[in-house]
Structure formats: C-alpha cells, structure tokens
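Tutorial, part two.
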Amino acid sequence: MAGLVWVVHRLTFLFVACCLGFISFSVEAAIKRYQFDVQVQNISRLCHAKPIVTVNGKFPGPTIYVQEGDRVLVNVTNHAQYNMSIHWHGLKQYRNGWADGPAYITQCPIQRGNSYTYDFNVTGQRGTLWWHAHILWLRATVYGAIVILPKQGTPYPFPQPNGEFEILLGEWWNNDVEAVVNQGSRMGVPPNMSDAHTINGKPGPLFPCSEKHTFAMEVEAGKTYLLRIINAALNDELFFAIAGHNMTVVEVDAVYTKPFTTQAILIAPGQTTNVLLQANQAPNRYFMASRSFMDVPIPVDNKTATGILQYRGIPNTILPILPQLPASNDTSFALSYNKKLKSLNSPQYPANVPLEVDRKLFYTIGLGQNDCPTCLNGTQLVASLNNISFVMPQIGLLQSHYFNISGVFRTDFPDRPPTPFNYTGAPLTANLRTAVGTRLSKIAFNSTVELVLQDTNLLTVESHPFHLHGYNFFVVGTGIGNFNPAKDPAKYNLVDPVERNTVGVPTGGWTAIRFRADNPGVWFMHCHLEVHTGWGLKTAFVVEDGPGKDQSILPPPKDLPPC
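Running the prediction step on this input gives:
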C-alpha cells in the first residue's frame, strides 16, 4: 500500500532527547514549555473534507514529553470560533485546580483571541496520560498524549523496551461534530454516532479513501516495544489487538500493574494502557485493530479501525493479517480482563489503599426522560446521579468556592439515592421526575472516601466509564446486580487493587472505589461517555482546605480567563 504514513521505531531516550532538544536537562526539575495554538484546519477522511479544530494544525495534537518532577507550562492561544479549555487527564494538580481545565468547573473558557498558560507540576506520577479539550464535544479532534518518563536513573519495573509508540484510539464524524450534537439536543435524542473509529487519527484501509490514512509502525524482529495506548474516543469502549501477537499489560492510567499477558485489551474512554509487545513472530505485515464493546442493544459505531505493524524489510505489497478481536458483546472477556488488573504493590510502588473509611457514598447512575414540548417525542433524554441531573454553572465552580461567591452551587448532593429500589431489575420506564441542579458534595480534607457507583435499569442498563479529576482511586470491588452492603465489602481487594483515574462500571452492576481526599479544591466527576456527560451524568466534590500551610488551594494565576 503506497503512501502509508510511516513511523519508524526509535530508542526512547534518543527520541525524547530529539523532541526536547531545545530544553536543558539538569539534575533539578526542568521547566518544559509548550505553545498550543488552537486553530481550524481542513482535514480529509473517508472521502470527506471538513474544517476541524486542532492544536498546532495537527490531528491528533502534539505529544507532551516530560519527566517526573518537571514543571510544565503550556500556553494555549485560541484562534478558533469556539471557546476552549484543555484538561490534562490524570494529572493530579495538587492544590492547583486552576490548571485542571474543565470549562465552568475550574475555569471559564479561553475566548477567541485570548491565551491562558496552564502551569503545573508533575509530581509522583510517571507513565502515559493524555490531554483533551474539556468543553462541548471539541475533544473529538482536540487531544494528544502525555508521556511522563521516570526520574533520571529510575528504571521501569519491567524489561527496558527497545522502542515505543503512542497509539491514540479515536472517532471521526464526516459532518461537523458540534452541528451533530446540537441537532440531537434540539430533538431530545442521542446525536448521530461517528462514521469511523481511528488509530492515531487514521481509520485504516477497511474504509474508503483511506489507503494514505493508515497508521503504520515498523518493528525489528527480536525487539520489544512499549505501546502507550489511549482511548480518546468520545462514546465507545474499545477492544484493541494485534494479529499474531500477545501483549503484556504493565501499566494503566500511569500506574504500574502486575504484568499479565493477553491477546486483546479492553479500554474505556479516558483510560490509558501500556503494553509490552515482542516482535517475535514471522516477519510479515500484521493488522492492529480497534472495535467497540457494547453488551446491550444500544446502537454504537461498530466499524473496525485498523493500522499496520510491519516488520522491517517486508514489502508493502504483502496483505496484512487481521487479528481475532473479542465479539462486540463479549461480557465475559470484559469482566475477566478487568479482574486481572492489579496494582504492582511493590516496596517502591506501594498500593496505599485506605483500610478505614470516614465517608461512605452510594451513587446510582440513571437515564431518564424529562418533558420537552419542542423535542421530537415531547421528551428529552437526561442522565443523573442519585436522580439529579447536573446543570453547568455560568462561572467556574472553583472561582465561586475560592472567592465565596454565593448562589452558584449548593453542597447538598445526597450521599445515597433519595428512594431505594431494585436498581438492576426489570427495565423502569416511568418518569422519575429527575431533579436538575448544580449540587456538589463537600468532603473533609484528608478524609477517606468509599464511593459505590451503581448502574440501574432506568430505561436501560449500560456500562459507564467514570473519571474523577484531581485524584487516583483504588478499585476495591465490582460485581453484577445490586450492591449488597452487608455481603459485598467482605469480598473487596484491599491488598493490591488496581489504581486508576477512570473506571468502568459494568453493565447492570456496580463498582466500589476508595481514595483519600488530600487534594483541596473543586474536582469534577463524570461519565466519560460524552453523550451522557452532556445529558447531566456528572457532579463535583468540594474538598475543603486542610489546616497546614501547604494544604489549601493555591491563589489563582493572574491570566486566569475571565467569566
């Protein structure tokens, strides 16, 4: 296939040194500076050309390369017609919610013609994270990888790879994404699904006009590669596999895991997974492939994106071999795969799971229909936690909290649903009169929190990936059906549960997470399916300041965008 975009393998150190050659390295933490110009660029995929919002004209956007301990300054200048904000997904932003990025949560957006510098430290984290727009559905095209290398002289807790690649899984719409979303909102129905999945912005040769829009990576026989895989899709959990090759999972969400080998991975929107790939098969061309996982009858984009793994010296004329992906509704694979994820829990990288809990929260996840006289069926779809659909404020919640501006939000979000019911029984289609409001939960500084997220059969059960800003958490338990507070906690893993920032709540089931609330500020928590977030499946925690001088929210930067 002529015209494939080639990505030649590289040695990690040389590659990063090349990319960051303009930055001086020293024993002390370095300052890494990036300029992000948000601009509209004409891009062609699937025989369709359209203007899209990009960073620096690239789709996907540029990779941020840093080392653990670095300070990062990213100046974002907005030249596009939309307001903009950027979220640094998975970075903890200790005391520094001003750099977190979600519009109207920690900042007002950057308006056209204006700039804002995100200034943050990368402390105690290493691995793969990512950045993306956090306003409207602009993250459909505004996203990129964050690679955090370990401190100098600190080896990986797995064999040193010979090279590495970033693999960003995404979605593509032929039509303008914001127009698609607005049409769905006016009609009160889900927006049209994407027209293709992508691997590094390219759908692959199974789609029309895509011969030159195919990601390819070249490997050498006998060498080992680290693949940094990111699910940047808006609405789809994805399987990913490479024909003929096993992968060894060694990290998720920038936290090392106990290694295990698998033929395919499952990765939800917002999640990252690092795997080791050994180029130990007969030199050939092999397809890598990505396809949706959906185990209920809800329409999704079920088309398969492909890229090519090519051994050095093999000509482009050889037809690649397709991998065997799990069936799109393979619930058993999904459950067994997630069960294998465990923290490394070594002396150097311990799993500090809270064993005692100060605050127990139980949140139900529900879909519903509220009256909408102008909508298609006289109703519009809403989504809720504890039957409350979140309403976005007009100024940043963090500003209103920091400056004590009243009337913006309430801190009476209920710790449990107002009316208990058989959450995962027969489908419930009655109008539960879902409340709407900007209601948050206040959490005492340094308290330990257990949150059980319970899927419900309000309209339908469905898997939901939830992301908590400002924190990692431990996934101490999960199950199918209704959570049983008398029996299920006895089955928790409190020794080496996986630690991450985004977790999937299984279809018709529950997930229990624990974390220590040691990061003061206002921190967003939401479903990372963009369609559900837009319907109100979100809330935020107000974590109070601590008593110490280094335990309160930092003052806002002078260039914080005005509201």
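The chain has three domains: 28-152, 157-342, 357-541. In part three we will examine how such features are distributed along the chain.
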